[in-house]
């Protein structure tokens, strides 16, 4: 299989041509990114939740007027005469303002610009009113959903072999542990797709994972090729997923309902993947490779040798190994794309926040392969945490998207 194409970052088409409603969906997707990531600087993984909240609200505002697809956990409908752009702008504005009041100036300015494009009259008034209803529904449905709650047992004061503990250099506490106890978007509960336990410390699988990481994931003296290092760095941080989804919809000429559905379906699957991964991290609390390699003398496995000075290619994030969040999200991303697009030929163009380059993944399997490998090559996840996570993300997306965002009967 050919390697994914790599190009320099640059603006890509983000809106279906000559469609004011589609333009509104794309513009408010971009405004959500600016609000959540630029203004509020919310960290990954919680950004997935916020984008899911906004995109599902916009989806409800669109299909409640245009029809075509079943609303998301709602039965709201508006007259066909209601303005879709007015509904979209109002819905997104109200949700974002509820959670990010510090961005009021940005959001109010964007709303005024959006509504100025809509002719005065009954349709505009109906659209604004319906957008308000859609936002109110989302806000009410997400009250007391576990966001930001204190989670007991996230850390251990006396961890034994195999148990997670803060890692160098900062030795930070378990970040965003509450994600593992947050109400999912589509799943019944966070543990619904929790996989079985990771390999025991004396197993052949653990030994293989350990020795692969020790050799290829190290910062200096690694067996990585330059191409493998490039892929590792591409996936070493977040991706511009919202930009990529807008680009996918635009290049495929999606109408507004299809566009809103793509954003809502993929964002909801990725959000549930993060909740699932964090549930597993909380439940199993497995140590990271850097700890495993430093503390190998305590693991009871004669085939693993300690190396106290070993460092990974990138700094280890402050949460346990199993499951890999990036790999679990990748599985949910690719499976939701293949289901919503109706093909495994996803032709997905996504830009890396860290490297600034864009890669095109023609097939879903290409993305899954690279995100799994990358987290091993970075030295921060075992291959088992990646492969099980990726399969779990695919399974949960397949389950969820047979139940949500379906064509209307």
Automatic annotation (TrEMBL):
Organism, as annotated: Streptomyces albireticuli
Protein name per the record: Uncharacterized protein
Family matches, as SUPFAM superfamilies: Acid phosphatase/Vanadium-dependent haloperoxidase
Region named Disordered: 1-21, 139-169
């Amino acid at each position: 299989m050919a390697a994914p194409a790599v190009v320099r970052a640059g603006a890509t088409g983000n809106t279906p041509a000559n469609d004011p409603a589609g333009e509104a969906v794309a513009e408010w997707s971009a405004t959500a990114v600016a609000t959540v990531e630029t203004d509020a600087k919310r960290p990954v993984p919680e950004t997935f939740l916020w984008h899911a909240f906004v995109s599902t609200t916009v989806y409800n505002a669109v299909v409640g007027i245009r029809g075509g697809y079943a609303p998301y956990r709602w039965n709201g409908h508006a007259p066909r005469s209601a303005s879709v752009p007015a509904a979209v702008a109002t819905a997104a504005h109200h949700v974002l303002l509820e959670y990010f009041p510090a961005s009021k100036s940005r959001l109010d300015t964007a709303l005024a610009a959006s509504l100025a494009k809509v002719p005065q009259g009954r349709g505009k008034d109906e659209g604004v009113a319906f957008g308000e209803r859609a936002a109110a529904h989302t806000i009410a449905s997400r009250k007391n959903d576990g966001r930001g709650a204190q989670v007991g047992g996230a850390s251990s004061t006396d961890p034994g072999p195999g148990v997670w503990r803060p890692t160098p250099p900062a030795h930070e506490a378990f970040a965003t542990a509450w994600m593992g106890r947050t109400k999912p978007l589509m799943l019944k509960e966070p543990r619904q797709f929790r996989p079985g336990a990771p390999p025991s410390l004396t197993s052949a699988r653990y030994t293989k994972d350990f020795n692969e990481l020790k050799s290829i994931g190290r910062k200096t003296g690694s067996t990585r090729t330059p191409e493998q290092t490039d892929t590792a760095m591409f996936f070493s941080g977040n991706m511009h997923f919202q930009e990529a989804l807008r680009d996918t919809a635009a290049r495929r000429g999606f109408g507004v309902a299809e566009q809103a559905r793509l954003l809502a379906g993929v964002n909801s699957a990725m959000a549930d993947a993060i909740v699932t991964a964090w549930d597993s991290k909380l439940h199993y609390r497995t140590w990271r490779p850097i700890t495993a390699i430093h503390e190998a003398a305590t693991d009871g496995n004669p085939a693993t040798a300690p190396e106290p000075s070993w460092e990974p290619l990138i700094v280890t994030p402050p949460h346990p190994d199993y499951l890999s969040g990036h790999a679990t999200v990748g599985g949910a991303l690719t499976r939701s794309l293949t289901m919503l697009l109706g093909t495994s030929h996803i032709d997905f163009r996504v830009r890396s926040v860290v490297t600034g380059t864009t890669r095109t993944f023609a097939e879903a399997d290409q993305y899954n392969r690279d995100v799994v490998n990358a987290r091993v090559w970075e030295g921060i996840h075992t291959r088992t945490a990646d492969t099980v996570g990726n399969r779990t993300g695919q399974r949960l997306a397949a389950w969820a998207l047979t139940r949500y965002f379906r064509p209307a009967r």
